[in-house]
Specification:
Pfam families: Ykof. By secondary structure, the chain is of the alpha+beta class. The chain has one domain: 2-Layer Sandwich (Alpha-Beta Plaits), CATH 3.30.70.930. 17% of the residues are buried.
């Protein structure tokens, strides 16, 4: 009988920086809405947002942010499979 492998949990610190716009709040709000609807555990901080959950869901959320954001941006992402993964 095959054993079902449990999916790895990871944490991800994300900082999103819209480029070339004076009014950047809408872009940041759009990213936060994507994160809030992702079914991940998350904490919104002043300089970054921390997401925790299955690796596939974290990567899917990052892909959604990349695909749905219409403005130019830089996104700094730090991923850990040990830091903060106790959900």
């Amino acid at each position: 009988m095959r054993e079902i492998q449990k999916e790895k949990l990871i944490s991800c610190q994300l900082s999103f920086y819209p480029l070339g716009k004076e009014d950047y709040i809408d872009d940041i709000d759009q990213v936060l809405e994507i994160i809030q609807s992702s079914n991940l555990d998350y904490t919104i901080n002043d300089m970054s947002t921390i997401m925790k959950g299955s690796s596939s869901l974290v990567y899917k959320t990052l892909q959604t942010i990349t695909d749905k954001t219409t403005s130019n941006f830089t996104m700094c992402v730090v991923i850990s499979n040990t830091c903060g993964c106790e959900i």
